[in-house]
Amino acid sequence: MNSESGLDDARRDGRDEPSASDLVGAAIGGAARRAGIDPAEEATTGHVVWKAMGGVRGVLESVLPSLVFVVVYTFWPDPLVLSLGLSVGIAAVFTVIRLAQKSPPSAALGGLIAAAAAAALALFTGQGRDNFVLGLVTNAVYGTAFLISAVIGWSLIGLAAGYLMGEGTGWRQDRRKRRVFLWLALAWAALFYARLAVQLPLYLANETTLLGTLKLIMGLPLFAPLVAVTWLAVRALYPAARER
């Protein structure tokens, strides 16, 4: 089944311009599809989760820079510059590989820019813990976005699913879908806020090694199960669409 874009939804509904919900749904749904999370496609849950994590390369990209930073920072004398340099260097290697494989430049450079910005902040302050500031901010922003979307009845999960399944915002007329999308948005908000609740006190206490370690533990190991739950829940809501 082919999903429609936000612009197509607007034209179908007789509107000249797509609404904000169309644009948000298209943006999030498009990102989900590029990550391999499209409930309209036939795939096993394990395959979807593995693809959402980026496969072997995605896991390495997510884990290695932080892991190297934590290990070097913990065990090397006067470690700040070396640990940050190695972390950014590893991110740069992965970026070169992505560009060589003709990945979209924005996707290839995103991780490197984030790693370089975090390292620059840590070097500027001279505090290793500041390498994790951008991650804390990201968790706060994402958690708040999911929470607000749930509270106002425009779940980000619902907007993405509606786009991917070609339903637009029609899910808001279905009580069951609204309820499921509400709880899914709250679950994602809880994930981001849980990371923040655990990691922010460690940041304030200047526990850099423990902060980096828990960042890794609360990364993919929590992300993967929630992707699986979201995938299964959305597919359960659209059995007829998958049979077309």
Automatic annotation (TrEMBL):
Domain of life: Bacteria
Any Pfam family hit: DUF3159
TM spans (from-to): 58-76, 82-100, 107-126, 132-159, 180-204, 216-238
Region annotated Disordered, chain positions: 1-22
InterPro entries the record matches: UCP010219 (IPR016566)
Chain intervals with Basic and acidic residues compositional bias: 8-18
Keywords carried by this UniProt record: Membrane, Transmembrane, Transmembrane helix
Keyword Transmembrane among UniProt keywords: yes
Official protein name in the record: DUF3159 domain-containing protein
Species annotation: Microbacterium paludicola
Taxon lineage: Bacteria, Bacillati, Actinomycetota, Actinomycetes, Micrococcales
